Amino acid sequence: MKKLIFVVISVVVFAMVLTGCAAADNDATADAWFGRATYGATAQTAPASTPVPALAMPEEEMWVSDDMAVDMAVMVDGVATSGGTSGILPVAAPVATSMAEHIIYTVNADIETLNFEESIAMVNTLMRRYDAFVESSSVSGVNHAAQFHGWQTFRNAWFTIRVPVGNLNAMSSDLELIGNVTHLGNHAMNITSQFIDTQSRLNSLSIQEERLLDMLRVAEDVPDLIAIEERLGDVRHQIESLTTTINNWQSQINFSTLHLSINEVEIFTEQPLIHRTYWERIGDGFMATLRGIGNFFMSFFMWIIISAPVLLIIAAIVVAILIIVRRKIRANKNKRMQAAVTYTPPPPPPTSSPE
Which of 178, 236, 155, 231 is nearest to 202 (CA)? Predict the structure, then answer.
């Protein structure tokens, strides 16, 4: 009996040892496959036959071509900051090489000029040269009311110009002919996936329209005809909406958008720096206060002279009101005095004499 128990225990222990060895082998194999370090050993690499996935750049970031004449090392937020007479390099917006790519380009430019009329004329010249057209514009002139008060005003202009996508780079490079370019930014929006999805939906709706028309020809019951016509109207409405969306996208793809801001400026002349002592600054402040007081009284006197007709009319109205009020007060006072004079108190009651 004891021998049988000993044999059973030996078999169980031997099976446990075999199971532990198999588990250790499996763990070692897994560690070697996934590149993990086991029990202080060095990390193992994956087998040579295991493919390593390559990192792909998104399609929206691969539109920069090799022949772009822009120094990308000096680009900050899509704007170049070195080179050129204005310190701005044109931001290139190359046309997609594949017809399957649908990209909308937008350029924003801020320009300052010393000759406003010539800059506006140059904008028109560039539009004719590159077959562009104005989508919207706004021009603000000189404010004569502000000039009357001694304030200096400048003119400004804003343009939204549509440029053929093939001419966008050339026109962006020629913006320096308008004036000093202070900011030039470019934005590219890849709508390829939206365009393809919308086109697929449009094709599906067109197929549905043809099938509904076939069903409408063979339908005989009035309820069926009404249901088919309602569904056909809904499908055609969706077709018109998607067609309009695709046409708008295609227009923005074919004609890029250029937002142009032109500001009239003048040459700034820096005044020489003069160092004043503490007491000299006190004297300057005191004299400035006296000049301010003098200017105040001069302006006040000028206002009185200019507003004299209005002030005289107001004064006449006030005097007339005072006279009328004073007369009413006197009349009420006289009435009270007359009532006091004509009033006679009643005789006192008779008193009885004592017997």
Answer: 236
Instruction: For 96-112, give one letter per residue: b (16+ CB within 10 A) or e.
Output: beeeebbbbbbbbbbbb
pLDDT tens for the chain, 355 residues: list them. 444 444 445 544 454 544 444 444 444 443 433 333 333 333 333 333 333 333 333 333 333 333 333 333 333 333 333 333 455 555 555 544 445 689 999 999 999 999 999 999 999 999 999 999 999 999 887 777 666 666 777 889 999 999 999 999 999 999 999 999 999 999 999 999 999 999 999 999 999 999 999 998 888 888 888 998 999 999 999 999 999 999 999 999 999 999 999 999 887 777 677 778 888 889 889 999 999 999 999 999 899 899 889 989 999 999 999 999 988 888 888 877 777 666 566 667 766 655 5
Tokens of 353: 């004499």
Contact 209, 242 (CB under 8 A): no
Strand pairing of 255-264 and 103-113? Answer: parallel
Cross-strand bridge partners of residue 108: 185, 259
* Residue 26: HSE in the Cβ half-sphere, 13 Å Cα cutoff: 6
Distance CA 292, CA 245 (A): 63
pTM of the model: 0.50
CB 186 within 8 A of CB 105: yes
What beta strand segments (E) does 57-179 contain? 75-76, 79-80, 103-113, 133-140, 156-164
For the chain, the farthest-separated pair of C-alpha atoms sits apart, in whole angstroms, at 166
Please state, in angstroms and rounded to a whole number, the distance separating the CA atoms of residues 24 and 37.
14
- Roughly what angle, to the nearest 10 degrees, separates helices 222-254 and 192-218? 160
Residues 228, 216: Cα–Cα separation, whole Å: 6
